Amino acid sequence: MKTTLIILGAGESGVGAALLGQATGYDVFVSDFGQIKAPIKAELNAAGIDFEEGQHSEERILAADLIIKSPGIPEKAPLIKKLRAAEKEIISEIEFAGRFTNAKLIGITGTNGKTTTTLLTYHLLKEAGFNVGVGGNVGKSFARQVLEENRDWYVLELSSFQLDDTHELNLEIGVLLNITPDHLDRYDYDFQKYIASKMRIFHLVHLGGCAVYWQDDTQIGENVQNVTRDLNVYPFSLSADGTEITHIQNDRLFYVPNDFEVSAPRADISIKGLHNALNAMAAGNAALLAGVSEADLLKGLKTFKNAEHRLEPVRVLNDVEYINDSKATNLDSVKYALDAFSAPLVWIAGGVDKGNDYSIIEALVQEKVKALICLGTDNSKLIASFEPVVPKVKSTDDLIEAVRWAKEMAAPGDVVLLSPACASFDLFKNYEDRGEKFKSAVLAL
C-alpha cells in the first residue's frame, strides 16, 4: 500500500513537492484553503494528481502518513494544531526534497540579505564551472529541481518558516547573515523564539561541516558557540582589525578561509553599500569553502547582477540616478539603502506600516535626504516622523505623481530612491508589483 502524502498549499513549493512525491511512489493529495491558480491546476491535472481548493478535507488530511505544509501556514492554524495533536509528521518541501538528492547543499538564512547572498553564492559557483542549482525561498522549488535536474550542488535560501519544519537536511555549509526582529507574530511576539529559529540552520550542518556567520551581530554572538560545536567556523566582521577572519580593511575585502587569504577591492564588487559588502563576505566565504578558486571568486564578484527590486538601478536622467529598492520593507533594509549613497537623496517611502520606530533612522535621514515623498493610503506616521528633519515632505497615493514630483525635486547629481520601509498591500499586489510600476513610471519620464 502506498504511503499517503498530503501537500498543504499549492504554491510553487507545494506543486514541486507534489510532483516529486508522485515520482517517488507516494499517494499524493494537494489541499489549498484558497483558490489555486489556473496554470497550477492544469499542471496537477496533467500529472494526474488529486487536489482540492477553497477548503481542507480534515478527515482525509488527518489520515495522512506524511504532511508537507506551505511555509506561509502558521502553527496556530486550527488544522495544524489538530495534526500536531495527532502526532503527524509535518515537514517542509526543503526537507522532503533533500531526501532524494545526493547533491552537496549550502543553506543561507538571515533577516536581511538572504536573496542577494544566495544568488551571489550561486553565481560564484556557476561562473566557476560548478554544476549548481539555486532554490528554497527563491526561484523554482527545490523539489521540482531535484525531480528534473541532476546537480552536484544546490544553494538554498532558507526562511525561518522553512527552517522550522526542516529537521534532517544535510548541509555542507550553513550561512547566517544577521538577526533582527521580524515576523514576530509567528513567534508569539517572543524575539528569542525567532532567534532560535534562525540559529537552527547550524543544527542542519553535518558534523565537520562549515558555519559562516556575521560575528558582529549581537544576537548571533550570544548563541553561536553552542550551536556550532563540532563544526568548522568561518566568521566575518566589519570590526575585526586582524587577519584571523574575513574582514574589511582599507576598502578591501579580505577572505580568510582555510588559512589562506584572498583580497578583493570593494570598488570591484558589483553590488554597492556596506550591507552588500557583508553579503559579499558571506557569499565569498561559502564559495571558497566549496572549492571556488581565487581567480573565479574575483571574476564572479565583478560580474554579478542582483535580483530585481534590491537597490536596482533603473536609469540615469538629467544626471539623476533612479534606484528601485522596493524589496526594502523594513527599517534595517532602508538603513542599508540610505547608507549606500553619498549623493543627496529624494526618498520615496510608505505603504502599510509594520510597527516601524522611525527614530532608528532619523539621524541618517537628516544627513542624507533632501526630500521625502510619502507614497501610501495613510502617510501620517511618516510625515510626523520626518517633517521636522527633512527640508521637503510631500504626500500622495499616486505612484506616477510621486515619480513626477521626484523628478522636479532632484538636481543633477542627486539620487531618487524608492525604499519604502513598509509593506505594499495598500496600493499594490506585492513589492514586485510596486517595483515594476515604479520602473515603468521612471522609464516613462
TrEMBL record:
Pfam families: Mur_ligase_C, Mur_ligase_M, MurD-like_N. Its EC number is 6.3.2.9. Residues 108-286 form the Mur ligase central domain. Transmembrane segments: none annotated. PROSITE patterns: FOLYLPOLYGLU_SYNT_1. Keywords: ATP-binding, Cell cycle, Cell division, Cell shape, Cell wall biogenesis/degradation, Cytoplasm, Ligase, Nucleotide-binding, Peptidoglycan synthesis. Residues 309-422 form the Mur ligase C-terminal domain. It comes from the Bacteria. GO terms for biological process: cell division; cell wall organization; peptidoglycan biosynthetic process; regulation of cell shape. It is found in: Cytoplasm. GO terms for molecular function: ATP binding; tetrahydrofolylpolyglutamate synthase activity; UDP-N-acetylmuramoylalanine-D-glutamate ligase activity. ATP binds at G110, T111, N112, G113, K114, T115, T116. Pathway: Cell wall biogenesis; peptidoglycan biosynthesis. GO terms for cellular component: cytoplasm. It catalyses: UDP-N-acetyl-alpha-D-muramoyl-L-alanine + D-glutamate + ATP = UDP-N-acetyl-alpha-D-muramoyl-L-alanyl-D-glutamate + ADP + phosphate + H(+). SUPFAM superfamilies: MurCD N-terminal domain, MurD-like peptide ligases, catalytic domain, MurD-like peptide ligases, peptide-binding domain. Its main location: cytoplasm. InterPro entries: Folylpolyglutamate_synth_CS, Mur-like_cat_sf, Mur_ligase_C, Mur_ligase_C_dom_sf, Mur_ligase_cen, MurD. Belongs to the MurCDEF family. Cell wall formation. Catalyzes the addition of glutamate to the nucleotide precursor UDP-N-acetylmuramoyl-L-alanine (UMA). This is UDP-N-acetylmuramoylalanine--D-glutamate ligase.
